[in-house]
């Protein structure tokens, strides 16, 4: 019995030892699981709440940054952006994350800022789905080009307006990135009626039978002596006009939110406001088939407008629109679509919602510039003694200076569209590297009236000279690449 009891006791001890080992093993596993669970839960929740390491930058509309200050001339502009990672260098996937979707918002500045400032995702999502003030909510787009898209909003963009937009993207794991900074773009004038009643005006009207279009040639006749000759072809008279318009504001200049001048001048124009040149463009607008279309440009004039009286001025050049038929000047080609003319709308928007337009019509005054002859290839003749000093400023009396009312002209292009190319500008200034006398009178190095200025390189530019001398002296200069 004792042996049997001991055997049972020993056996029971074995069971207790096995049970103890099992409990210890189970306890260890449970402790391990409990230790791992927070890590697993943390890792999963971190993955869901952590935003994508992507940022949208370099926002552009029609391939132009808003900093370029160029207006948009299409109702369906093209939006584009670049994406970069905000992960520090050296981390996993630095610079290698891929875009899986995007979303664009176009609307008012206040609406977009409220989206950026909202941290509750459910509220933002509900607001975006129900908001009717947005011009466009693309929602999450996963197909097509994920870096470019064309406007597809339910609301049609209006001319002469400022719109705001922003974009965000999702990475390959479906995680949304932060919204971009809010950017903006200004629409130009989409249709001819958007010029608000502006008319093409000029100083003279060319008759239809006087026009010389591409492909026209002079009529050749045979005289009584059997010789062939060309009949007179093309007009020689060349009047380059100046136009001015005086106007007062509806309010104070400080109340203006923005002011934009939409203007076209054929062949070329230079616009001025209160004595200052508007913008830094040169030789606007670009050359086109003037029978079909002319280009206009949009220029910001907000900072040039003053209280009380303002004066808007436009000076025109011939360009390729009118080339004088003079035999004394080099032409290269001869076309005469009409005499120089212009059309414009100055659009002023006030902070209180009011707007004001100054448009070209017969209320404008027209004078003659000091440039008496101008040919795109042949050069210019300018009489400095005939400068109309102050013509583009308040206080000038056009009636006393012989100015007359502008006329409405009818020989105009059928189309009018925004110039989309980058403008010509003065990019660099050069000084002469050397100056040489040309053809000395007797070969002995005596004084000469002719000088050659070596600019050091071939370039396309305009000479700038400061002269002193008696009133009425004549100066001749020629630009030539050697």
UniProtKB/TrEMBL annotation:
<keyword id="KW-0472">Membrane</keyword>
<dbReference type="Pfam" id="PF25788">
    <property type="entry name" value="Ig_Rha78A_N"/>
</dbReference>
<feature type="domain" description="Bacterial alpha-L-rhamnosidase N-terminal">
    <location>
        <begin position="255"/>
        <end position="428"/>
    </location>
</feature>
<keyword id="KW-1133">Transmembrane helix</keyword>
<protein>
    <recommendedName>
        <fullName>Bacterial alpha-L-rhamnosidase N-terminal domain-containing protein</fullName>
    </recommendedName>
</protein>
<dbReference type="Pfam" id="PF08531">
    <property type="entry name" value="Bac_rhamnosid_N"/>
</dbReference>
<dbReference type="InterPro" id="IPR016007">
    <property type="entry name" value="Alpha_rhamnosid"/>
</dbReference>
<keyword id="KW-0812">Transmembrane</keyword>
<dbReference type="InterPro" id="IPR013783">
    <property type="entry name" value="Ig-like_fold"/>
</dbReference>
<feature type="transmembrane region" description="Helical">
    <location>
        <begin position="21"/>
        <end position="43"/>
    </location>
</feature>
<dbReference type="InterPro" id="IPR013737">
    <property type="entry name" value="Bac_rhamnosid_N"/>
</dbReference>
């Amino acid at each position: 019995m004792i042996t049997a009891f001991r055997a049972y006791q020993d056996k029971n001890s074995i069971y207790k030892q096995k049970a103890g080992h099992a409990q210890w093993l189970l306890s260890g596993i449970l402790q391990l699981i409990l230790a791992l669970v927070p890590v697993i839960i943390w890792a999963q929740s971190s993955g869901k709440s952590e935003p994508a390491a992507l940022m949208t930058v370099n926002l552009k509309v029609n391939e132009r940054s808003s900093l370029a200050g160029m207006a948009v001339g299409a109702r369906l502009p093209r939006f584009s952006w670049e994406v970069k990672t905000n992960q520090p260098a050296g981390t996993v996937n630095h610079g290698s994350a891929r875009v899986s979707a995007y979303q664009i918002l176009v609307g008012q500045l206040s609406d977009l800022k409220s989206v950026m400032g909202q941290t509750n995702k459910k509220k933002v999502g509900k607001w975006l789905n129900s908001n009717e003030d947005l011009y466009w909510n693309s929602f999450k787009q996963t197909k097509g080009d994920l870096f470019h898209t064309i406007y597809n909003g339910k609301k049609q963009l209006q001319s002469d307006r400022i719109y705001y937009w922003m974009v965000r993207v999702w990475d390959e794991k479906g995680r949304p990135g932060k919204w971009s900074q809010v950017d903006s773009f200004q629409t130009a004038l989409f249709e001819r009626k958007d010029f608000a009643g502006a008319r093409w005006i000029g100083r003279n009207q060319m008759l239809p039978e006087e026009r010389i279009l591409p492909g026209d040639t002079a009529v050749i006749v045979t005289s009584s002596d059997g010789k062939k000759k060309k009949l007179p072809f093309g007009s020689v008279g060349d009047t380059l006009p100046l136009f001015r318009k005086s106007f007062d504001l509806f309010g104070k200049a400080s109340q203006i939110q923005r002011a934009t001048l939409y203007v076209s001048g054929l062949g070329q124009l230079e616009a001025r406001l209160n004595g200052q040149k508007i913008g830094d463009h040169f030789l606007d607008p670009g050359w086109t088939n003037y029978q079909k279309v002319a280009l206009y440009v949009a220029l910001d004039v907000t900072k040039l407008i003053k209280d009380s009286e303002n004066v808007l001025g436009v000076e025109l050049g011939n360009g390729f629109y009118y080339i004088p038929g003079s035999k004394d000047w080099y032409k290269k080609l001869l076309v005469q679509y009409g005499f120089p003319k212009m059309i414009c709308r100055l659009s002023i928007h006030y902070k209180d919602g009011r707007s004001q337009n100054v448009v070209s019509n017969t209320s404008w005054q027209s004078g003659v510039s000091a440039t008496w002859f101008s040919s795109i290839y042949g050069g210019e003749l300018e009489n400095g003694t005939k400068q109309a000093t102050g013509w583009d400023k308040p206080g000038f009396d056009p009636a006393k200076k012989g100015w007359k009312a502008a006329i409405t002209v009818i020989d105009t292009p059928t189309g009018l569209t925004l110039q989309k190319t980058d403008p010509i500008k003065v990019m660099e200034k050069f000084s002469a590297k050397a100056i040489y006398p040309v053809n000395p009178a007797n070969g002995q190095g005596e004084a000469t009236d002719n000088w050659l200025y070596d600019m050091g390189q071939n370039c396309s530019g305009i000479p700038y000279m400061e002269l002193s001398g008696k009133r009425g002296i004549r100066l001749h200069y020629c630009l030539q690449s050697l």
